[in-house]
Design goal:
Elements: H1 5-25, H2 34-63, H3 70-95, E1 99-100, E2 103-104, H4 105-126, H5 133-136, H6 139-166, E3 179-180, E4 209-213, E5 219-221, E6 230-238, E7 242-252, H7 253-260, E8 268-273, E9 278-282, H8 283-286, E10 290-295, E11 298-299, E12 309-311, E13 324-330
Parallel strand pairs: 3-7, 4-13
Antiparallel strand pairs: 1-2, 4-5, 6-7, 7-10, 8-9, 8-13, 10-11, 10-12
Helix pairs in contact: 1-2, 1-4, 2-3, 2-6, 3-4
């Protein structure tokens, strides 16, 4: 091998797959579905590259079986993780929902993919002296990129057509990769929480919603103050791999903000759970959200965030804060928060 072009292309395709997968995971609006299209194409590109590169990895390592070095072990681990992540992703996309050790196949696909990146980077850096800039200027490199992209596009479209024709389970998934789970079922759809958010049930009579921060007047509201008749139909799309469309009822978030009158310098609002979990939104997008007390004709159950949860159309499930007790109006923008919750 004159220079490790396949290594570099695998790393580049994996990086594109990771970035597009992240943006796709955080996108709940169909206008951003192209992120996951890029994710799928780059994933198939990695498959094509592994078919080429696999023999270069396996042949010399297998010849040294029984006397493997640390580099050999790292190469085998890298290949195993790559194959596992790709296999989990393909199985989820086409075979339907499944779980392993209490976590969805989609969650495993994401985490295994993250685990392989340090090994890919190490493998590329190991050969970086051989990968000279002049190689990227060659017509051969451009042809490889074009050929790889066309092969990945072909495989993606071919599998999509076979999936629809054969009526595989994957044909029913949403653009995010999530599968349907209990539409219009009241509280009967799945309950999940980000990380370890599992508070005790909240006493409704003692519960209050506090609104403070950059407001003209602070407000404390009881559940009776929030008995609204406003309703919206919206899809909760969980990053764990399922989605559910429900009728939600409650009070528009904008109405509650108006009760406190945000100041002229107000720019965003943090919606905070009793657990400390929060997500921050611009005031404009917050006015399109609902503070829900009911799902269908039923009061929210504890698992679904009673007594009050956020309904955020067009946002992924981790943005739909549950067990809300506090709204903090901020003078700073919505971007002043981790892109994914870390609490």
């Amino acid at each position: 091998m004159r220079y490790p072009w396949a290594n570099a292309f695998i790393l580049a395709a994996a990086a594109v797959s990771l970035a597009s997968g992240y943006f796709g995971m955080t996108a709940g609006d169909a206008s951003r579905a192209w992120y996951l299209d890029v994710h799928r194409v780059s994933g198939y590109a990695v498959v094509a590259l592994l078919l080429w590169k696999g023999r270069n990895i396996l042949a010399p390592v297998l010849r040294r079986f029984g006397r493997w070095s640390g580099q050999d072990l790292a190469a085998m681990l890298m290949l195993a993780l790559l194959l596992a992540s790709l296999g989990l992703g393909i199985a989820w996309a086409h075979g339907g929902r499944f779980s392993l050790l209490g976590f969805s196949g989609l969650t495993w696909h994401i985490n295994v993919g993250l685990a392989v990146l340090p090994l890919l980077l190490w493998h590329l850096l190991r050969y970086y002296r051989l990968l000279r800039p002049r190689y990227w200027a060659e017509r051969r490199a451009a042809l490889r990129v074009v050929g790889l992209a066309l092969a990945a596009l072909f495989v993606w479209q071919a599998t999509a057509r076979v999936e629809r024709a054969a009526a595989w389970a994957g044909a029913s998934r949403r653009f995010t990769g999530s599968y349907p789970a209990g539409d219009f079922s009241g509280n009967a759809f799945p309950t999940t929480s980000w990380l370890n958010d599992r508070p005790r049930p909240i006493l409704r009579d003692a519960w209050r919603l506090e609104v403070r921060g950059a407001v003209e007047r602070e407000v404390s509201l009881t559940l009776d103050d929030l008995r609204g008749a406003e309703s919206v139909t919206a899809t909760l799309d969980c990053t764990g791999g399922w989605h559910s469309t429900q009728h939600w009822r409650g009070v528009p978030l904008g109405v509650v903000l108006d009760m406190a009158s945000p100041t002229a310098r107000a720019a965003s609002v943090s919606v905070v759970s009793t657990t400390g979990y929060y997500r921050r939104f611009s005031l404009d997008e917050a006015r399109g959200m609902l503070l829900a007390t009911h799902v269908g004709d039923e009061p929210l159950s504890h698992g679904h965030g009673a007594p009050l949860r956020l309904v955020a159309p067009g946002k992924r499930g981790f943005e739909w804060v549950k067990w809300i007790v506090w709204l903090e109006v901020n003078e700073t923008g919505k971007w002043l928060q981790p892109p994914l919750p870390i609490q």
